[in-house]
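Illustration: Gamma-glutamylcyclotransferase.
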Amino acid sequence: MAIKEGEDFVVWGYGSLVWRPGFEFIESHNGYVEGYRRRFWQGSPEHRGRPDSLGRVVTLVPAGEEPADDEATLLAAKAPGVDAADLHRAHGTLYRISAAVAEDTFAALLHRERAGYGLRSVRVHCQDGVVRDANVFWGASENEFFVGAQPAADIAKVIATSAGQSGPNVEYFARLLAAMRRRGTPDPHLEAVAAAFGPNGHADVLDRAVAAASAEQEPPSDPSDPLSGARRLAAAGPRSFPLGSAVPAGDQHSVVVSLPTVAHCEGYEEGDPAVTSLVRHGYPRFVVHSLLLRLHDRLAAELSQAGCDQCHTPAGREAAEARLRGSVVDAMGGGIGSDDVALCRSGMNAFYAAFKAVNDVMRPRGRRVWLQIGWLYVDTTMVLERFSAGQALCAGWPASDWEADARGEDGSAACSGGGATPDAAASGGGAATEPVSVVRVLDPTDDAAIAAAFAEHGASLAGVITETPSNPLVQSVDLAQLRDHCDACGAALVVDPTVASPFAVDVLTDSASGGPLADLVALSLTKYFGSDGSVMAGALARNPRSPLLAAHPGLWARAAAHAEPSGAADLACVAGQCEGAREVVETGSATCAALARYLESRSDCVESVHWALQAAGGSGEKYRRLARPGGAGTSDPLCGSVLSVVLKGGLEAARAFYDALDAVKGPSFGIGATLACPFALLAHYDLVTSEDGRKLLDRAGLSPWVIRISCGMEPTAAVLAAVERALPPRPSA
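Result:
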């Protein structure tokens, strides 16, 4: 083929031309060709391999020429963003090259694609709706380096171990994989090969390559900007990621892992290897980090000989701690200082430290009852279960205004039959230590039930725990009234404001009276403070004006002693991001309020919306008494980024919405990207899948099919548009 003098040259790329064109062009468009599939069936004797050990690069294969059991075809049903039509398409990038440089560029491309590639014409369906003619370099099946169909596992092994003049083969693969994911057109074949790296033992090789590729394709990081990572997450707008992807992409420390469909969430909970084999990131209690697996054997022998005195921390640890404490002080206000903040490994550790310290002080005084207000996040409930309350979510709770259960602190059952009143529990445990009981008021807006629980158990109460607002129903308690109840009986008040963040809600000082509210505040810094989703941390704060802490001066020292500090690297990471947390909260709050009101307007398909300013049960008014003012131009206070929505139509409606939503989908919240999860399915799968469990959820007002959404830093209009696309169309007038 010859270049026509005076004419532009148009080429469409689907491999390395996508991420490294290497020439000047005057126009480019993302687009796809119909009737073909991209496959790693072409050998590379030079660029990514050697003549005697071919690497693997992509070529095009007419649809229908692959084996019937081709992994890409099988995976397509699970890959987000891949529908039936995508099985017969290959996505790539079209470039228009100016006539002035077309001849030289064409000669360079012929040399670049010399190992078996010829030139053909294709019609490219571009994202702007225009179909354009283009040239494409294609390794046809008759060329000498065509290797043909192979299992994904074999292809992955070759890619992981090959290299050529242009660099490692895995670099080529990772750059193409990252490019397709970033633009929202994940390729089933690429995903099938990526999944095969794990069983081959080369997962770390791919993770490092994807991390490097993603970093180069994202806007450059600005060390002076604490929200640099959060801004990169939001830069491309709301978007979904393939199953098992880390968020941030390629970050081996990510606590957010993509579970992009309800089927994936169910598969994870059921232990389906097709799902769990791809989940290599997430909260440590869910996933054993790959680095830990590699490190375990190496350190075991060394530590047994050298001991822990060989460990050390970087010199900057104290500076990171001071910076992070300062950010918590800035968020909470209330007259606290850095000495009033204990840094913790996680939010769960923060609550545990408060819980353990209160028990240490109160149990010798005969106070062994905790009052739980509202349906609390699973982490907090797990502490209550493990260290005092036994099976806090068992199905046999008595059907009364408050619920009770008990267990000895050694973990032995203190009662049978799924729960009992504290007096009954205390008489039948047989535990070495006297059991601690938990009384539960599941509806934090039910002032009468709360008052009744205090009236019956006030003299025995050690402490009260609540979230304001709660997770995932985003309900708020009358915290001033709760303070009055605690003062009257001498119980400790522990509050967790993580859902909205202390930037949005003040749980230390009553805005009406100026008096103190919480005694202790347990907080997850993984949310909002660690806005790129790559670090875990927590904090416990004391109220310097707390009457209870004044009466028990040793309690704070005990709490601080139970706080486990984060590692130096984690501290440095969250300290580098924390100063941008206020902006994350303010941006997410504005979008959350707009999204909540949009969803409330969709009564045709939305059953209920739960958010900080919701009207149901007076929760919104209770929240407003604690909320901090919003930005200029709005009468709304800050509400945090989190809302939950229940759709009409049960599981099928939730499945359709969640699967179609263009957003990060997985656990956590308060990061730079909009993030959704089917909360009950992931947090309480045992309850969702049993009749008694669903009854308990119903009594708590928690739908098994609730979808929690955390609004990120993308433009509000983009988030609203993504949600609207995922919902059924509005009925015609």
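Reading the tokens back as a structure: Residues 224 and 576 are 9 Å apart (CA to CA).
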